[in-house]
Request: fold
Amino acid sequence: AKKNGGNNFCFSTPDQNMEMDRKFQMELELKNALASDEFKIVYQPLINLKNNQIVGVEALLRWKNKELGSVSPIEFIPILEKTGQIIQVGKWILWSVCNQMKMWQENGTYLERISVNVSPIQFKDKKFVQDLKQIINETELDASYIELEITEGTILEIENVSQTLHDLQELGVKVSIDDFGTGYSSLSYLKQLPIDTLKIDKSFIDDLDMDGEIIVNTIISMGKNLRFRVIAEGIETPQQLNYLKKQECHEGQGYYFSRPVNDKEIALLYKKLQSK
Ligand code: C2E
Ligand code: CA
Ligand code: CA
Ligand code: CA
Reply:
């Protein structure tokens, strides 16, 4: 601890102070972000690795603030979680995404699925399923087009996870396990819970360029044997793609195909791939 005049003791380094300031400023700016229309959603294609068609998209949140510029969700989502704002923002995301899917359908862009990330805080909110149901009713989107992405952490941490997952299944939405393989959880839940999809974490796909094949092969064959859809995240190179195709991984996502883009670009990409 440094003594900096008077009786004020300062226990943090200047670096830590700067980080505190930024967090504090983000928290302040986030308070008005939704009302000020600072959030937008971008969409990253999910590609069927057998026929190279776009079968779906993952919705990803973006925040651009006049003071802070563009901030990564890695930075701001934890703050929304801490303040509880993630519940309100999460509802807005679900509503926007259902609405967007409906609009694509009206304009001839027929995707099988839209994937939405759900924070554990949102997932354990008592009204989560009820709110989702209302959004589905209001937007008149068929529930089967929606897939919610949760992590193994959510499965481990949340008490009523089994009940919520069964409620979601009854509602007709799908569930995928995001960042699969990074969560230190036992695999027994895979047989017990109603889950549709496993998304292999990008870190394992990165390792394919070295000698990470064994883990990826194991996840793909286990996933397929248990009747899950298996998606590889973060594909960046043709080598990674070829390998995943050889292993008959169902779907892929990554910069190799496309970065996350806006709704109009998804419609264009859909048309382009359709005509191939
Ligand atoms: P995630 O759900 O694992 O999302 C995948 C992240 O990997 C996205 O980053 C995406 O842009 C990035 N990515 C996709 N393909 C590639 C690739 O080939 N190479 C590289 N280097 N990166 C790739 P993004 O959009 O920055 O999101 C980061 C994380 O923030 C997400 O990880 C998710 O945990 C969280 N997040 C984003 N949007 C939302 C949201 O709407 N709600 C919630 N609760 N969390 C969100
Ligand atoms: Ca995700
Ligand atoms: Ca992921
Ligand atoms: Ca991740």
User: Anything to note?
Assistant: The CA atoms of residues 136 and 143 lie 6 Å apart.
